[in-house]
Write a structure and sequence with these properties.
The chain has 10 helices and 2 strands. The chain is 56% helix and 3% strand. The radius of gyration is 17 Å and the shape is globular. It has 155 residues and is mostly helical.
Amino acid sequence: LGRAQTRGYRAASVTLCRMSKKHTSKVVGANLRRVRTAEGSTTRVLAAAVAEQGVPMSSSGITDIEAGRRGVSVDQLTCLAAALGVSPLALLTPIPEDENPDTDVLLSGTSWEKAGDMHLWLKGEQSLSHELLDDFEREAFRRASNPPWVWKKKV
């Protein structure tokens, strides 16, 4: 791996420890509940909407996801987001209780990061180790994290 690639990785033992706690599943569940209730929807209505998209899910399954007892596949994540009318990032982004972007948050496989920095990482705008990278490495991260039409210049 190149220098820019290795700086983005954390120690394997730390990552494995954090992965076992399902931090991302808990974030998705909390955000799912937050968005669903803000919309005034029930788990039954959401389950029916997701089933119409070809991904059957029970209301008790959605309750389990919201409680952090069950994870979601990427297909379920995108279907849930579409059914709720939000981006998948709305379900993946950790929202601190105080809603302060400077509050530290955690996702599986990451270290504790400021919520604002985590959001920028999820959007592919900034590496988790951005402060260690030079301009070339920052641009390499951005290009590797985004589709070509985001960074290619039109001729």
